[in-house]
Design goal:
Blueprint lengths: L1 H32 L2 H59 L10 H20 L1
Length: 125
């Protein structure tokens, strides 16, 4: 989603790039015909616009690259997650079924006593 938004923003910036270039061209033309003080102001403003534009484009490109890396890591993670889930399901199917008998502590204690009595009885014989 975010990657799509950045691509959309990139497309919208293309016409702006043409406008920035056009403004810079017009500024250079004005510099040629204006007095020195006006020429300096125009040049400074033109350079300021150029630097801001370059910073914006650079920032956008860095964000696109970062999002591309995040997307790749997400795809790798999803692939591994799916593999682990599949493996767990296969292991679950391969495990033998175990029947669990629930007994209270009292019942277990009684069974232990019974075993001890039987064991003692056998030793005595």
């Amino acid at each position: 989603m975010l990657c799509f938004l950045l691509q959309d923003l990139s497309k919208k910036l293309e016409p702006l790039h043409l406008e920035v270039t056009d403004v810079q061209d017009k500024a250079h033309e004005l510099e040629k015909v204006s007095c020195i003080s006006s020429s300096t102001v125009i040049s400074n403003k033109s350079e300021n616009v150029k630097h801001k534009w370059q910073a914006l484009v650079s920032s956008l490109e860095n964000k696109k690259e970062t999002l591309g890396n995040i997307k790749k890591h997400w795809e790798d993670f999803t692939t591994l997650k799916d593999y682990v889930e599949k493996s767990l399901l296969e292991m679950e199917d391969a495990l033998p079924e175990v029947n669990i008998e629930k007994s209270s502590l009292l019942e277990l204690d009684n069974q232990l006593r019974t075993v001890k009595v039987i064991h003692c009885f056998r030793r005595c014989l």
